[in-house]
């Protein structure tokens, strides 16, 4: 197993990241927050939403396979029952990094998706948020990371 900190660092070293579940009506949807912030930080991000042609002012893709040139990593920010489909696609496409987003709620974490990804050699981070880690993490995300780590809502090992 790998520490969450090391896994997060490797994930954030990826430059082409898909975010599944980016909503057409963003409000404070976790997927949209992650998508916007990664875009602001200079990542090449791709919104995945099978029900939209555009989100956050950018083209949306129906699935991971539709993204030209593929991606290095995937943030799953869908309902948990859709996570296994995203992980299956990641496996099929050779993507090795998957992060199932979880904030204060249950988030996108699905035990079957976690198991499937790990059985196929993927690094699956099953909880927390990529915005909680790295030198660009804002104060709010850093505080949330500490609290969620203390309450074990973020795994310490993946």
TrEMBL record:
Positions of the CoA-binding domain: 11-105
Annotated coiled-coil positions are none
Q: Which CDD domains match?
A: GATase1 (cd01653)
Gene3D superfamilies per record: NAD(P)-binding Rossmann-like Domain
**Pfam entry (one):** CoA_binding_2
Matching entries from InterPro entries are given as:
CoA-bd, NAD(P)-bd_dom_sf
Superkingdom of this entry's organism?
Answer: Bacteria
Q: What is this protein called?
A: CoA-binding domain protein
Organism of origin? Cellulomonas gilvus (strain ATCC 13127 / NRRL B-14078)
